[in-house]
Design brief:
Layout (H helix, E strand, L loop, with lengths): L14 H12 L9 H18 L8 H16 L13 H4 L8 H9 L8 E7 L3 E3 L5 E3 L4 E7 L3 E9 L7 E10 L9 E6 L13 E2 L7 E7 L3 E6 L4 E8 L2 E9 H4 L10 H4 L18 H4 L14 H11 L5 H13 L3 H16 L21 H17 L1
Antiparallel strand pairs: 1-2, 1-12, 2-3, 4-5, 5-6, 6-7, 8-9, 9-10, 10-11, 11-12
Length: 397
C-alpha cells in the first residue's frame, strides 16, 4: 500500500491517513501470539471503514483502489469477517487533537451527523502594499506604521509599512510579526518576527517548531535562505508564507474560516478580515491611478532617482512575468511607475504564485478590475484610464 506519487495529485483524498492508521494499529502486533489474527482483523476492518468514508473523494486515485483490493485479499487470507469490532471502536482514541483536518471527522463521529468539510480562506499582502482580504476583496492602501492583518483567538499577524518614495502615499512592508497562540497540548505560544534583510528560519526563541518532538504541530520550513520561509500549523490548519523581494516583505496565509471568525468585538480592526479603512485607501474601488512622477520624485534626488519606467515599458516588464492581465498585473504596473524598482515585479508575480498554492478555489485565483457599472473589464477600461492619465503626465513633464 505504498503511495507512489499519485497521492500528490489528490490532496483531498484521505487514503494516506487510512494507510498510516493501519500501520500504526498493526506495527506492534506479533504474529507468534495467538491473538494476532483477532487484532489484525480488527485493524483491517478499521482500514476498510476508513477507505469507505473516502470512496467519493478518492474515486480517481489509483492508490486508493489498490488499497481496497489489498484489504479484500488480506481479509480473505486471514479469514476475517466483514462485520465485527475494529481497532478504533472509540473515535476519541484515534483522533489527533493537534491535527485540524481531523477535527471535523471527530465531531462527525461524536454527533452522528455528517459535518461539512472545513472552508479555507486566503489573505495576501505585497507591493505598495496591495491587500487581498479573506473575502477576496482587492485593495491598495497607505496604512503607514504598524497595522494588524489578523487578530483572532489562535493567531495574530502585524505588519509595519514605511513610505517607498518621498511625496507618495504608497508604502511597503519592512516588518512582520506573527504570534501563534498557545493551544491545548499542541504548542506553547510561539512568536516569529521578520524585518528587511533578516528573514530567520526560526522563532524568536530560537526553536523551529512548537509542541513536543513527536507532534510538531507547528513548524518552520526554510525554502530559500534569507528570502522565503513557510510556517505550517497543523493544529489550526493554517499555512503562512513570508518572502523578501528587494527591500520589502510579502505575506500569504491560508486559514480555516471558523478560526478566522473566532475573535472578539475589540479585535475588529483586522485588514485581512475587514479591509483597510476608507481613509487609508489609495485605489478607487480597485482602480489604481497612475502616479505623476514629477510630483512623486523630486528632480535631481540622488537617493530616489526619477523612475525609468513609462507606461509602455512598465506594461512590457510586467507582462514578462504575468501573462494574464488581472489585478496582480495592474498592481505590478502601478508599483513600477510609483517606485521604478523592478523587484516589485517579482513581488506581484510571487504573490500570484502564493494564491495558486494556497487559495482553495481555482476559479477565484484571478481578480479583474471592474468598470464603474460593475461589469468585469479585463484590460481595456483600466488601460484607457491609465492612458488618459499618461497624457496628463506628459503635459506635466
Amino acid at each position: 500500500f505504498l503511495c507512489l506519487g499519485d497521492c500528490q495529485l489528490h490532496t483531498s483524498c484521505g487514503i494516506q491517513k487510512c494507510t498510516t492508521d493501519f500501520v500504526s494499529f498493526t506495527s506492534h502486533l506479533n504474529a507468534a501470539l495467538e491473538d494476532f489474527d483477532l487484532e489484525f482483523c480488527k485493524a483491517l476492518r478499521a482500514y476498510s471503514v476508513c477507505t469507505y468514508r473516502n470512496s467519493k473523494v478518492c474515486r480517481g486515485n489509483l492508490v486508493y483502489h489498490s488499497a481496497v483490493l489489498g484489504i479484500g485479499d488480506l481479509m480473505a487470507q486471514r479469514n476475517c469477517t466483514k462485520d465485527g469490532p475494529t481497532s478504533s471502536t472509540n473515535p476519541e482514541m484515534t483522533h489527533d487533537p493537534c491535527n485540524y483536518s481531523g477535527h471535523t471527522e471527530a465531531r462527525e463521529h461524536q454527533g452522528g451527523e455528517k459535518t461539512p468539510a472545513p472552508t479555507y480562506l486566503f489573505c495576501g499582502l505585497f507591493g505598495d502594499p496591495h491587500l487581498r482580504t479573506f473575502k477576496d476583496h482587492f485593495q491598495t492602501c497607505k496604512v503607514e506604521g504598524a497595522w494588524p492583518l489578523i487578530d483572532n483567538n489562535y493567531l495574530s499577524v502585524q505588519v509595519t509599512n514605511v513610505p517607498v518614495v518621498p511625496g507618495s502615499s504608497a508604502t511597503a512592508t519592512n516588518k512582520i510579526t506573527i504570534i501563534f497562540k498557545s493551544y491545548e497540548d499542541c504548542t506553547e505560544q510561539k512568536v516569529y518576527q521578520a524585518v528587511t534583510d533578516d528573514l530567520p528560519a526560526a522563532f524568536v526563541d530560537g526553536t523551529t517548531s512548537g509542541g513536543d518532538g513527536n507532534t510538531r504541530s507547528l513548524h518552520i520550513v526554510e525554502k530559500v535562505s534569507g528570502k522565503y520561509i513557510e510556517m505550517h500549523a497543523r493544529h489550526i490548519g493554517t499555512t503562512v508564507y513570508v518572502r523578501q523581494l528587494g527591500h520589502y516583505l510579502t505575506l500569504a496565509i491560508q486559514m480555516p474560516r471558523e478560526l478566522v471568525m473566532a475573535y472578539e468585538e475589540s479585535q475588529d480592526l483586522q485588514l485581512c478580515v475587514n479591509g483597510c479603512p476608507s481613509s487609508e485607501r489609495i485605489d478607487d474601488s480597485g482602480h489604481l491611478p497612475l502616479p505623476v512622477m514629477s510630483k512623486l520624485l523630486p528632480q535631481g534626488s540622488a537617493s530616489h532617482p526619477r523612475s525609468v519606467y513609462t507606461l509602455e515599458t512598465a506594461t512590457t516588464k510586467c507582462h514578462e512575468k504575468m501573462l494574464v492581465k488581472d489585478i496582480y498585473f495592474y498592481s505590478c504596473v502601478f508599483d513600477l511607475l510609483t517606485t521604478g524598482d523592478a523587484n516589485f515585479t517579482a513581488a506581484a508575480h510571487s504573490a500570484l504564485q502564493d494564491v495558486e498554492a494556497l487559495h482553495p478555489r481555482k476559479e477565484h485565483w484571478h481578480i479583474f478590475p471592474r468598470s464603474r457599472g460593475g461589469a468585469v473589464s479585463r484590460d481595456s477600461k483600466f488601460f484607457a484610464l491609465l492612458g488618459l492619465m499618461c497624457l496628463t503626465l506628459v503635459v506635466f513633464l
